[in-house]
Amino acid sequence: MPELPEVETVRRGLEPAMVGRVIARADIRRPNLRWAFPENMAARLTGKRVERLRRRSKYILCDLDSGETLLIHLGMSGRMTIAPLDGVAGDILGDFHHLHPAPAKHDHVVLDMDDGTRITFNDARRFGAMDLLDTKTAENHKLLASIGPEPLGNHFDGDYLAARLKSKNTPIKTALLDQNIVAGLGNIYVCETLWRTGIAPMRKAGTLSKKRVESLVPAIRDVLSEAIAAGGSSLQDHRQTNGELGYFQHSFAVYGREGEPCQNDGCGHSIKRIVQSGRSSFYCPKCQS
Ligand SMILES: [Zn+2]
């Protein structure tokens, strides 16, 4: 399931292919994903210039010159691919789409940009979503309105986090996964953050000292920034591979490493896995308390 760094990598990958370009053709190949697509979606996209690609939590917001914003959520299995028309000279009457292979199974939305580049949204499990919003009020959309601050933004700091966690009787792991407290943090990056800060995942959030809570903020930023950087390097070869964005190899210190030795120097303990709220937590029983 894509987490914030993967979504940010997709956004950065789409940016050069879409921003400043006009959507010449929109092929909406089914009526819905997780929810029904908006009415007249193809017509509302066709001929519109993409002015900006933003990200809010795990949503990509594509601002169009029509005053509408295309919201894209990758869900569990959504994938975006970019297929440039390399080596094709000239504009074939503006109709490039015949030059691309026919859409594959699960290619639900296909956007052909005015330079012939094809952007495809493929989603086998169909938990993804797309919607068209008024750009001016896009962040008030029901999916976005109650989401907490961006972990890489200025509103997320030690004072804010301490205030939100102070009265929480839930485990810190659960609190950090709460999208109303902080946007876009998922299971993998919460496990990594807690290991780096030496905080046990089952520790009650409200019992942490202010100092320990404050230590979470730079750790969260570092973990996410490192993953975004790894995603950025994966973008450099997307043209050589299949054009798929956002899924990249990245190594984790504890996530998925049950039974392996803790990577802290001189620790010697092995990583343990427990299940919290139905999800695996990986941690070191010696380094995290
Ligand atoms: Zn350890």
Question: Explain this structure to me?
Answer:
- The protein is an alpha+beta fold and 289 residues long.
- It folds into two domains: 4-140, Alpha-Beta Barrel (N-terminal domain of MutM-like DNA repair proteins); 158-283, Helicase, Ruva Protein, domain 3.
- The chain is 25% helix and 20% strand.
- The chain has helices at 4-18, 41-45, 158-165, 172-177, 187-197, 210-235, and strands at residues 23-28, 50-56, 59-64, 68-73, 79-83, 107-113, 118-122, 129-134, 272-276, 279-283.
- Strands 1-6-7-5 form a four-stranded antiparallel beta sheet. The chain has a four-stranded antiparallel beta sheet with strand order 2-3-4-8. It has a two-stranded antiparallel sheet with strand order 9-10.
- Helix 1 packs across helix 6 (210-235) and helix 5 (187-197) crosses helix 6.
- The longest helix is centred in the C-terminal third of the chain and has 26 residues, at 210-235.
- The protein is elongated, with a radius of gyration of 21 Å.
- The two termini are 28 Å apart.
- The mean pLDDT is 91.
- Zinc ion binds next to loops.
- Monomer.
- Residues 2-128 form the Formamidopyrimidine-DNA glycosylase catalytic domain.
- Keywords: DNA damage, DNA repair, DNA-binding, Glycosidase, Hydrolase, Lyase, Metal-binding, Multifunctional enzyme, Zinc, Zinc-finger.
- It holds the Pfam family zf-FPG_IleRS.
- This is Formamidopyrimidine-DNA glycosylase.
